UniProtKB/TrEMBL annotation:
Residues 335-443 form the Erythromycin biosynthesis protein CIII-like C-terminal domain. One of its GO terms (molecular function) is glycosyltransferase activity. This is Erythromycin biosynthesis protein CIII-like C-terminal domain-containing protein. Pfam families: EryCIII-like_C. Gene3D superfamilies: Glycogen Phosphorylase B. It comes from Talaromyces atroroseus. It comes from the Eukaryota. InterPro entries: EryCIII-like_C (IPR010610). Transmembrane segments: none annotated.
Amino acid sequence: MATNGGNAKPILFFTALPGEGHTYPLLNIASSMIQRGYTVVFHGYAQFEADILAMGAEFSPIPSMLDPVPNPEAVVAAGKAITDCRLPLFVHGLVNFLYNTMPVRTQHLEDALIKLKQRDPNRQIIIVHELCSMNVTPFAYGRPAPLGFASFPKTIGIGAVNISAPSVDTAPFSMGLPYDTSRACLLRNKELHNLANQGPWLPLFEAAQRAMREAGCTTVPEDHPFATWYSAPDVCFQMCSPSMEYPLSDMPPKLRFAGCLPPRLLSSSVFEAPSWWGEVLESAGKKDRKIVFVSQGTAHVDYNQLVVPTMEAFRGRDDILTIATLGIRGATLGDNIDVPENTRWTDFLPYDHILPYADVFVCNAGYGSTSHAVTNGTPAVLAGEALDKKEVTMRAVYAGYAWDLESSTPGIEQIRTGVEAVLADQRFKERAIELKRENEDMDCMATIERQIIDYTI
């Protein structure tokens, strides 16, 4: 049996996909584990190196899968060619970004583990990986353990997106159909899964099986590729409470709920408050003035899709203060945007600083965004349609704290109607507060550390 060479705690080896929504949850967990006395190595991408080093972790680089950077016009053209329906676009992204790169990313992970083992051969390593990264998956299906390892390290999977495993209780993921377990809908779901697997999902099945063979697997599962996300790790933690997901009758057996990540507030010496921040503090909690906060996240930079219509929806309203963040440092609205007098905007504003004061959060339904809404007890109005965002929206509506705008580019009247409906119905706020408390009680960081302790030898 391996020992930790005099160290009471194992080395924690983190890895995630390069997207902010995939990496930052792992960074938060890693930072908490460092504060609890663990040594952390983070196998990540160059854009996160500064954050990784700043929290006291060792940076283990993953070469970019986008070198050389694709021609932007070609990417846009390819995207337009496959956007006739939600599922083909979703599959296209998964095939090209996740599965076609998996063998190379797996080799990078193995090389990093070998170097770490050679440097400290008697120290136990436990892997904490974001489920979508999948670079540990081949080792669960026959790829030999890396040089120097008697067996592959224990792995803890972190779910930073909605539960995606196929279920008899739901239609195929990304279709955005409501949860319904009536006999008619169960039969519908079964038929839709069969049709999707033989049609739009088929390129994903083929890409996944090809990637597994190229990555050295001796067994290639025939199940839906998403199922292996939850079967490959030793245990998986979904970063939310059970009430924020559908109560599936066939939940993946290794899956546990950890609760949402807690809010992260910057110290007063680090948080750069906008010049108008005093207006937020003055308006917060007033019965005769509500704060509407809007963000499109970091990936969608056409502010006419959501930010500008939200500003316009409440132009001239003395009872509404609209706060907009563009999500990218240095971003601007542009000189052609006529900003209403009751709107304040900034390039970047940490969600956990503004959401405690907001009465409604208007966003495009990123999984991280809705998690922030819950942990701050803020009801949401969601414009999520593309890729997995419709699934995020449907679950948030099911959980009772959100309104669905049913469009990724809602009109002014749609936004006004949604926000006013949430403000007028106290049940949205009450449910958001209930979910906030439920997740606080779960204490996700302590839950994850208990699993690490259980795996420590």
